Amino acid sequence: MSLSIKSAGARRADIVAARKAETGIDEAMIDRLVRAFYARVREDGLLGPVFAARIRDWEPHLRQMGAFWSSVALMSGAYHGQPMQKHLPLPIDAAHFDRWLELFAQTARELCPPKAAECFIERAQKIAESLELGLAGAHGVLLAKGERFRRDRRDR
User: Fold this and answer.
1) In the prediction, which pLDDT does 152 show?
2) Higher confidence at residue 12 or residue 92?
């Protein structure tokens, strides 16, 4: 009996290939989605100012977000960052997450085949929920099921 032991890299490549086959998502689709989505974000009345206050050179951010979505959608392991830490100092709450999800879903549905769009949207919803819960907790707010994090208007 012969055992085939694959390297971690080979196992990761198999996972990525399977995800691509299952969803139709590839790196080019991720890049198109990220670039189109953040173009909308920059123009948005609610989200645009939050980003404009922090990002001057968009290209590094877009590359980082491409790596993030590659890791999320394809399980590529391309992203090495701490999203929660990046979001904690931001003046955002439930309204921002709702708008982010609205723009993201709209962009995904316009640019991606249905199965890929739903994959992206499902993951985006989980990410937004996790970030909102973490943000609330960092501000000393424990959310019950179905509750949303709302900042005091003075914090905006």
Assistant:
1) 73
2) 92
Closest CA to 83 of 99, 100, 95: 100
What value, to the nearest 5°, has the Cα angle with vertex 59 and ends 57 and 62?
120
pLDDT > 60? residue 156: no
Assigned token pair, 52: 């404009």
Amino acid (one-letter) located at 35: R
Q: Domain ranges in the chain?
A: 8-155
Taking alpha carbons only, the member of 83, 91, 66 closest to residue 128 is 83
Among 3-7, 49-53, 92-96, 139-143, whose mean pLDDT is lowest? 3-7
DSSP codes, 19-79: HHHHH---HHHHHHHHHHHHHHHHH-TTHHHHHHTT-S-HHHHHHHHHHHHHHHHH-----
Other CB atoms closer than 10 Å to residue 2's CB: what's the count?
3
Q: Does domain 8-155 have CATH number 3.40.50.300?
A: no
Least confident of 6-10, 46-50, 80-84, 113-117: 6-10
Number of C-beta neighbours around residue 124 at 10 A = 20
